[in-house]
Amino acid sequence: MVTVKNLVKRYGEFSLDVSMEIPAGRITGLIGRNGAGKSTMIKSVLGLIRPDEGQITVLGKEPYKFEKEDKRQIGVALAEVGFSTYLAVEDIAKIMKKLYPTFEETVFLKKCADMRLPQKKLIKDFSTGMKARLRVLVAMSHNAKLLIMDEPTAGLDVEARLEIQDMIREYMLEDEERAVLLTSHISTDLESLCDDIYMIDNGKIILHEDTDTILSHYAIIKVEESKMASLDQQYILKYRKESYGYECLTNEKQYYIDNYPGLTIEKAGIDDLILVLTGGKK
Q: Whose C-alpha in 26, 48, 67, 206 is 20 to 30 A from the C-alpha of 249?
């Protein structure tokens, strides 16, 4: 669906230098701290900026060479709705019908009603959760093959987040040839939605792993400073100094469970990976 090979994009002292793939039938997560390169990556995939080096293919073509029909195969949900906030849902439906032959106005309006989005109320008067649901519905409404979503659940309460997660899952179930690229700072969203995760830091991919592997094989080992030297570190990816000693990240949890009885070993989530991999030492 998307292939990025040795992409390089320079901005002053910052340089993006990455390779990644987004296959059909999967939800791929892209994570990293602010300024790590996520936005540059998304803009490159969308063809909004051209790389200095390397190659990007989206649906078999270079995105900055897309024709109108090619662009219709991509749905985008960014930080804003993408329409004037002085429009209403019924106005957006009319615009989408003109832009996309595959857009079904009746279906869209019914989904909006199901999501408690009033048709005549102006978007500027929507709540944060209502705007988020509308962004996602608009991105999905023309049955795009590739869906790109930047922080789709940011600022939402738990109920609204779960609602949007269900929307994304249903979207993927409708067509196994679809793909989703998703960014989020909410680790539980990534863990429950994504099939695999890329972590970017300072313009480079520092981790790519199936989400199931992260949740089952990765762990945080907490070890006192006096015992650190006796710990076999062949499976320690990185570690951070803490007041009690060291916090170590491993991708071979079972090895340490089997060989170090009594050692404090805790499940590693997405937040732990970000903290240790971006701020730890090897």
A: 26
